[in-house]
Amino acid sequence: MDLALDEVDGAVPPVEWLISTVCEAFQVPPSVAKAELTANPRLVLDILDLRRYAQAKADVAAADENAKISQWALTWVMDVHEEIVRRRKAQRERDGD
Questions:
Q1: Which of 92, 1, 54, 3 is nearest to 46 (CA)?
Q2: What is the pLDDT of residue 65?
Q3: Cβ neighbours for 44, distance < 8 A, ≥ 6 positions apart
Q4: CA–CA distance, 46 with 54 (Å, rounded to integer)
Q5: 50-74 burial, b for 16+ CB within 10 Å, e for fewer?
Q6: What integer pLDDT is reported at residue 41 of this predicted model?
Q7: For the chain, which residues score pLDDT lower than 50?
Q8: Residue 82: per-residue pLDDT
Q9: Exposed e or buried b per residue across 15-47, where buried means at least 16 C-beta atoms within 10 angstroms of its C-beta
Q10: SS3 of 92, please?
Q11: What does pTM read for this prediction?
Q12: How far apart (Å, rounded) are the C-alpha atoms in residues 16 and 29?
């Protein structure tokens, strides 16, 4: 679990941790979380990623110069921001602006 939390390449958290995360996010018991992960794994994981990103973005936005922001949160938010800017610029160029 420690290796997965430290984002070591190839480290996978126990399935119980994922079930617990789904329980917490959706306020459901473990049996429901497990069933949803089995029936709709991509949807559940996509929603969890969106929730993590929203929290990371909020943390970055609320931070002042003395705040401790995790590097992964800051990098993720900045990468998404750069992609949005890139797509907007490409759209303007296609539109002839």
A1: 54
A2: 67
A3: 22, 36, 37
A4: 12
A5: eeeeeebeebbeeeeeeeeeeeebe
A6: 92
A7: none
A8: 83
A9: eeebbebbbeeeeeeeeebbebbeeeeeebeee
A10: helix
A11: 0.66
A12: 12
> Are the CB atoms for 19 and 33 separated by under 8 Å?
yes
The pLDDT value recorded for residue 47 is: 92
Tokens of 60: 């970055």
Sole residue written with tokens 């931070």: 63
Angstrom distance (rounded) from CA 41 to CA 36: 7
Phi-psi category of residue 91: left, alpha or beta, with phi > 0 → left and psi -120 to 50 → alpha: alpha
